[in-house]
Amino acid sequence: MHSTLIPGLPIQTFGLCVAIGVYLAWIVAERLSLRKDIGSLICILALAGIAGARAAHVVEYWREEAFAAKPLSVFAVWNGGLVFYGGLVAAGIAFCVWCRAKKLNLLEMADLVAVTIPLAHACGRVGCFFHGCCWGKVTTSAFGVTFPAGSPPYFAHHASRTAARSLPLVPVQLIESAALLCLFALLLWVYRRKKAWTAALYMTGYAVIRFFTEFLRDDTRPEFSGFSSAQLFSIVLAAAGAALFVISLKANEKRHDNNR
Fold first, then answer.
1. Which end is more exposed in the chain, N or C (fewer Cβ atoms within 10 Å of the end residue's Cβ)?
2. Per-residue confidence of the chain (260 residues) as pLDDT tens digits?
């Protein structure tokens, strides 16, 4: 685990991975759309996403992390503490405002942007692995990874107080990152052939990925009836994705009818 990229320099590995993800998303969106203003949209979505992800974390862990006693820590994103679904909602709102201001077709732009989200997210999950957050459960498999003393997973899982490293844990961050890259490849393939339905496919695809990877995680998260808050949101996201697929299908049929 290397939370800081270069010892002695304030360069966080997580922040660098997020920046790389945003840049790659920008490049892909620009090549797919040929729009000169797509870079500004990606930056707006990235900023809104980080703000929303942080806000969701603060709300969920308000008591556990005593934010009321240290209000400035609310803005300490570099210390970790982002909830992806909060970022997705905030970025979605910013996206709708941007499309309305530009008078663009919401569904068409959503299909474009949806292709890039899992690519940026995959990079962010690699950053989670280096930072040590979002860790997995203890495992005896050969794929288990250990984290050094002082890291968040070490305090949760160590053999003894004098142990140099944590117990072997499931590298769930890397598993989710790999699944996201597969989803990105699928969305890119579909978009290049259809230029439709990718937003709906992303929503349902990521919902499935997140729902099942949550079973591998062991960091502290709010739970309801045995399911994490992320799993419950995944169910909502999958339902919304199914509804969007029907809407996109009808819009696509209408567009074809108008072109005849």
1. C
2. 667 766 666 678 888 999 999 999 999 999 999 888 899 999 999 999 999 999 998 988 887 777 888 888 888 776 668 899 999 999 999 999 999 999 999 999 999 999 999 999 999 999 999 988 899 999 999 999 999 988 889 988 887 878 899 999 999 999 999 999 999 999 999 999 988 899 999 999 999 999 999 999 998 777 888 899 999 999 999 999 999 999 988 887 776 666 65
* C-alpha span between 36 and 51 (Å, rounded): 25
Domain that holds residue 191: 13-136+171-259
**Helix axes 84-102 and 106-131, enclosed angle (nearest 10):** 150
Task: Give 3-state DSSP helix, strand, coil % of the chain, rounded to 5.
Answer: 65, 5, 25
Other Cβ atoms less than 10 A from the Cβ of 10: the count is 9
Residue 94 token pair: 């910013």
The domain total for the chain is 1
Does residue 194 fall inside a structural domain? yes
Gap between the Cα atoms of 205 and 76, Å rounded:
31
R_g (Cα) of the chain, nearest Å: 20
